[in-house]
Amino acid sequence: MRVINLFTVAALAFTIASCTEKKDIPAIRPFAFNDSGLHVITTVINEKDNEVSMLYGNKAALGQNAASNPEAAYKLVTYREQESKFWFGSYINGELLRVETVNMQPTAKGQAPAYSVDVYNQAAYTPADAAARTQFIQTLDRAWYPCDPY
After folding, report:
1. Does 122 map to a domain?
2. CA torsion angle for 43, 47, 49, 54 (degrees, to 10)?
3. What count of other Cβ atoms lies within 10 Å of the Cβ of residue 62?
4. Domain limits at 71?
């Protein structure tokens, strides 16, 4: 009986000691881009400019003939690279720099795809040739994942 009482007291002491105030862990960076249900297509790393870009697309953009599908929509989201505090020698997405959007709907009427750029934490960014930038985004190869559900 004495062993059970000692065990009960120890368990109670540990329970009370573990009831401390929960500390919030600070985020590495603020949440800046909402993918709105889009799927990741691929990643582009630009070591020269210390940037990393993620290409997102809707279901139509994941298909075989996505470049000619008028329902396809792409978003190339570019971040500044930053060192990871938790993994020595690695880099992660830093602050959001720009979001480039390519919408293929105008191609149904024989027009060029719609291209737009939203600039955030950098000086004004205007690509030299919007058509070339659209072509670059459309021709990025889709990353292959072993358990790809799409």
Report:
1. yes
2. 10
3. 17
4. 39-139
pLDDT digits (tens, 9 = 90+) for 111-145: 888 999 988 888 877 777 888 999 999 888 888 77
Residue 25 resides in a domain = no
Contact 115, 107 (CB under 8 A): no
For residue 1, is it within any domain? Answer: no
**CA pseudo-torsion sign 97, 143, 92, 22:** positive
Which 3 state secondary structure label does DSSP give 118? strand
pTM as predicted: 0.73
Q: How many CB atoms lie within 10 A of CB 102?
A: 23
Is 88 inside any structural domain?
Answer: yes
Tell me the three-class secondary structure of 48-112, residue by residue: CCCEEEEEEECHHHHCCCHHHCCCCEEEEEEEEEEECCCCCCCEEEEEEEEEEEEECHHHHHCCC
pLDDT score of 35 more than 60:
yes
Query: What confidence tier does 30 reach under pLDDT thresholds 50, 70, 90?
Result: low
Coil, strand or helix at 13: helix
What is the identity of the amino acid at 127?
Answer: P
Closest-CA residue to 80 (of 95, 91, 90): 95
